[in-house]
Amino acid sequence: MKNTIVVLLSLAFVLSFASCKKNKGKMSGETKLIPAGTNAIAEINFEDIMKLKKVKKQIEKESKSFTKKTGLKPSDIKSMTLFANVDKLKDLERNPNFGFLVKGNDLGKALKELVKSGGKRVKESKHAGAKVYSQGPISLSLTGSNVVGGTLDNVKKILDLSKGKGKAVNTKEFSEIFKKLNASSAKGAVVLPKSTREELVKLAKKSPMPVAGLNELVQKLEVIAVGANVSSSSIEIKLVLKSDKKAIATLVTGLNGMLTMFAPQAEKMDKKMKGAKAAYDSIKLEAKGSYFVASVKIPASMLDKM
Description:
Layout (H helix, E strand, L loop, with lengths): L1 H13 L25 E6 H4 L3 H10 L1 H7 L6 E8 L6 H4 L3 E7 L2 H12 L4 E5 L2 E6 L2 E6 L2 E5 L1 H11 L9 H10 L4 E6 L2 H13 L7 H6 L3 E8 L3 E9 L2 H16 L2 H10 L3 H7 L1 E5 L2 E9 H6 L1
Antiparallel strand pairs: 1-2, 1-8, 2-3, 3-7, 4-5, 5-6, 6-7, 8-9, 9-10, 10-12, 11-12
């Protein structure tokens, strides 16, 4: 069971993050089940992501063993919401505090099959009237149409919230950054805690960066957000950073100047990889007050060559 969940989470993050509905800049209703203290949220719309043939093929390939165990196909999974509480960057690897909610078809049946395949290694318990299945650091349960999972503590918090108990995350800052991101197929954001910002300040001072404004931006970085808009013909990747207004303006001016220097290389690359010039031409770098906004649209023809 543990390996299966790890594969699912890996797929989710590799696909970059996404939303549960086609509402640009809006958050899904699943956030009401995310516990307070969360500083990273990602939402994945598998229906949207599967529009790209190459991505669909890769997901189907990676999920063969999962389908064999549970009977659940990638197309049965509609959306996935992930969250985490990260105090320091190293916590992501050493002591991850995360949870997730999955929506789809026949998830209850799939969960039973998954638990059965785990055998005696899976421990069963109860919380808030729901069965909880645990194996190692991963726990799973079912609430409504959602399969919920993550650390045991987070699963319990989700189940409590589903019963109207406990405190949910304040989504104000996430909603603000998602509006700037304006992504419908993929979005995720991390609100950096004080300890992480302090780490970045030390890193920037220790290794100054050559691009004007970048060093100051990193030192005052507050929020990082990544998103994507997917269609059958392209994928638009978006990045939003919240930081110092002056540093962002300086950085955008410098980067746009550097970008023009690469026009000849884009022309040459297009001959080897069709779509490279179109991708280059689509790049946008903007300063919107205290937000740095960047985007690039990659044609499906270019993705096929990667």
